[in-house]
Amino acid sequence: MMTLLDLLDRTLIQNAPRKLAALVVAVVVWLFVATDTATIAQRSLLVPIVVEGVSAEQVVVGLPQFAEVTVSAPTTRIDRLRPESFEAVIDLAGLSGDFQVQVSVAPPQGIVLERVVPSEVIGIVEPVARAEVPVVASVLGEVDGDLRVRATVTPAQAQVRGRAAVVAQAVAVVVPLPVGDTLGATATSGTGFAVDATGRPLPDVGIEPQSFTLGWDLEPVYVSHSLPLQVAAVPDGPWSAPSGAPSQITVVGLRSSVAALDAVVADVDLPTGALESGRYTAALRPRLPADVLAVERPTVDLEYTAPTSPAE
Predict the structure, then answer these.
(1) Rounded to whole angstroms, how far apart are CA atoms 269 and 205?
(2) What angle do CA 103, 128, 161 make, to 5 degrees?
(3) Measured distance CA(267)–CA(232) in Å, rounded
(4) Which among 48, 236, 277, 284 could bridge 266 via Cys, Cβ 3.0 to 4.6 Å?
(5) Of 220, 245, 262, which residue sits at a domain end?
(6) Which alpha helices (H) appear in the chain, and where do they start and end?
(7) Cα dihedral 182, 184, 189, 193 sign
(8) Among 202, 220, 238, which residue terminates a domain?
(9) Which residues contact 116 (CB under 8 A, 6 or more apart)?
(10) What range does the domain containing 294 cover?
């Protein structure tokens, strides 16, 4: 009958080196598999492309702004990676015209670079073109309804630089001037952007100087408008009803005051003094606010009948 000691001897002691080696191999394989599946991961990041080897008198056309960089690393590190951890570089030193170059990415130590998309880029190296254009201010927003901003920009000229085909379209540099409900007479600084003849901003255009001084004054806004004209009745007496009055009258004044008028009533300036019977032309006196004036002085026709004395 086999005792417990015999069983232990057969299972543990006999062929002990071979059994121990198998156990060690099994543990190592398990640790490798467990570590590999649990801690290694992949991640993709968009990394800005940095251009080297281009002088200030050259401009690069056709390059993408970013490269997609895929890496693998332990999860303890990969979650901490940022686009700033990488640099996607193309070297254009000595090149001009069309080019096709490799995108070089150097990952941090311990990070495995899997792929870069695009791995190569094509483009054109062109000489920089320049042009002098006027600088104008563009007022953004509104002040009080009866005021507007008259803005000035210093300097009045700017230099735009970039691709020849783009620079040729530039007609001005626009400097925005944001305003609020109130704006005192003062000055500020701002940056501008180049525009074409239709007012559309032009991309990838450098501007010198980069900052402009904006000054402004507030001035009243006057508008003109044509309104219906109504003639007031003349007092009962020797005068007939007026005739020949225009149906419209043009007025000019502050924007808010003119906008408040729906029509204009005018009184007849009747002639005075010793009058004989007959037909007279009399001026109209429009009833208008103090800050609104009539552009023209309309007239009307009316008949005067002189009163007869009792002796007659």
Answers:
(1) 66
(2) 110
(3) 5
(4) 284
(5) 220
(6) 4-8, 16-39, 75-78, 164-167, 255-259
(7) positive
(8) 220
(9) 67, 68, 69, 70, 88, 103, 105
(10) 222-304
Gap between the Cα atoms of 47 and 89, Å rounded: 10
Q: Residue 158 is encoded by which pair of tokens? A: 């700017």
Give the type of residue at 98. Answer: D
Instruction: State the Cα–Cα distance between residues 17 and 119, nearest whole angstrom.
Output: 53
Residues 6+ apart with CB under 8 A from 205: 160, 161, 162, 166, 167, 170, 193, 194
What domain count does the chain have?
A: 3
Same domain flag for 101 and 156: no
CA–CA distance, 135 with 193 (Å, rounded to integer): 9
Each residue of 41-67: pLDDT tens digit?
Answer: 899 999 999 999 888 888 888 889 999
For residue 3, what pLDDT band results from cuts at 50, 70 and 90? low
Specify if 1 maps to a domain: no
105/65 Cα distance (integer angstroms): 15
CATH of the domain at 147: 2.170.120.40
Is 206 a residue whose pLDDT tops 70?
yes
Q: Cβ(70)–Cβ(115) under 8 Å? A: yes
